[in-house]
Structure prediction request, 430 residues.
Amino acid sequence: MSLEAEQGVLYGVLVNNACMQECDLEPYEFSRWQHQEIFAVLKELVGAGDVADVVTVCERLERRVPGQQLLPYLNTILSEGVCPAGIRAYSEIVRSAHRKAQALAIAEELRKGLLDGGGADLVDVAIRQLMALNALGRNYDRDMSRVMAAGQRMIDQVVEADGLVGISTGLADLDDSLGGFHKTDLVVIGARPAMGKTALLLNLALAANAPVGIISAEQGHEQMGLRLISVDGKLDSQKIRTGNLDDSDWLALGRTIDRLSEKPIRLNDEPGICISKVVRQARDWKFKYGIKALYVDYLQKIRTSDRQQKRYEQVGEVAGCLKNLARELDIPVIALAQVNRECERRPNKRPLNSDLADASEIEKEADEILFLYRDELYHPDTPDQGIAEIDISKNRHGPVGTVRVAFRGQFMRFEQLQPPRYDELYGGAA
Prediction:
């Protein structure tokens, strides 16, 4: 079937050169060398704005592969040709057959390598090669009509999704500012200890409402499980830790555990995990479970393979790998980051980009940088009790600024900040 489809593509372009606009194949995706050569010539001629017919194609082929006498083969294709209107369908058949052949070759190479004593590095290479098949044949050269059509599609998607084009944060004001977490983006969230950044990460993962993965280099799965129960079930975290639960709490606990058990969330809590394992795990989750986002706690805890590197080089490598991973898997990667003590020596203790540990390397790779700040940790008498600030200090997709949200500490929940009621503002006056 694939050979007939290949001939159908060649026939369609020969009969109507404009059909090349509907075909984004590359010569190497054809199985026969004759088809590869013919299609390469067709692309050259049509791309140059020249007529591509039997005469011009044969003349060019004679220069590319002299002495092969491909004119009879071209005439056969023309005499047995099918309707050029099906060129898109034929192109998909050709691409599918090529990808299948490539996948089989990769699998066979992996099998032989493992039988010869190869290790996990061969598996990583095979996974990378298999994922690269998804990019085969993508055409990155587009005229303005296609650019405008793509822009229109994005506008339609935004309207249909009510402004949200990425993975939801669960916080309406933050979604309005970011548009959600976007595919291929590296989002870094920085904060000082005890601000609640791990709790925020779990809130975000639960709000995604999609298959996601969590890398927990900071805490074990038991602690993460308790946190998730508190966040999702609105159960007092202190009561959960001490087991001091009343009857209604036990009922809520059971319902929460049942609900969370069905969530499409994967978690890896390997201590001291290295970046190569993070990449391997994320790829595995993408293949098996189709994760839509990856959450990492936290960036500076991830090790690199070279312990001799300077600290900023290690952080730079991890940040760069996470950004590349986001692009490779076509998902957002949201990573927590440590903020150094410098911010606490200033009157205004809200973190800045320069306060990120090894800031320059992180800032260079991140598409968005957010900082979490709660004033009540420094000023117990602040009027902003129960308020958390999420400062968007870098945003490649929109504005920067501060989003205020409610923080319910006993549940470790971040929620949309509700506007004050009239009676709260005016003491119930009519």
